[in-house]
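Hi, here's the filled form for the chain we discussed.

Project: internal
Contact: R.S.
Residues: 172
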Amino acid sequence: MWPYLGTFIMFKFVKVFLLALLVLVIAACSSVKLDGSNSVASVNANSSSAYDPVSDQKSSVYGKRSIYFMFNSYTIDPKYAPIISAHAQYLKTFQRQKAAIIIQGNTDDRGTAEYNLALGQKRSQAVKQALVAQGVSESQVEAVSFGKEKPVNPAQTEEAYEQNRRADIVYH
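And the returned structure, exactly as it came back:
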């Protein structure tokens, strides 16, 4: 029994180490940029297909455009993998039609403006890197930070803080 426990612990350590390494690489490639728009636009892919899953409000995955984060974190929870994969697939499919997104990193309002801009950028970069790792062209994805400037919920409650700690995928 004990040899299996050691293997299990080592496997968990390797997973955590690789995730931490990915986070460090993502953090090293960040820049802070503000954009005044916060609206969601649909992509005109000029495809022969009449169905556009990004604009379909009934779509269970494509309609989801926010990735939420824990306090003081820019690690993507594995539960968001299907959302990221769905957007990656769409962007790869419509690359020739110039489908593109802006990932807007956001934070709750705790912390300084500078800290929150940097954390928001790390969050948007983490989502960008996850998309690029799935084959999306870097030219299709821009990562920006709004820090604490664009809250979804301005209340000072834990529920509001959780809603504001996010990266939004905005098609343009």
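Let me know if anything looks off before we file it.
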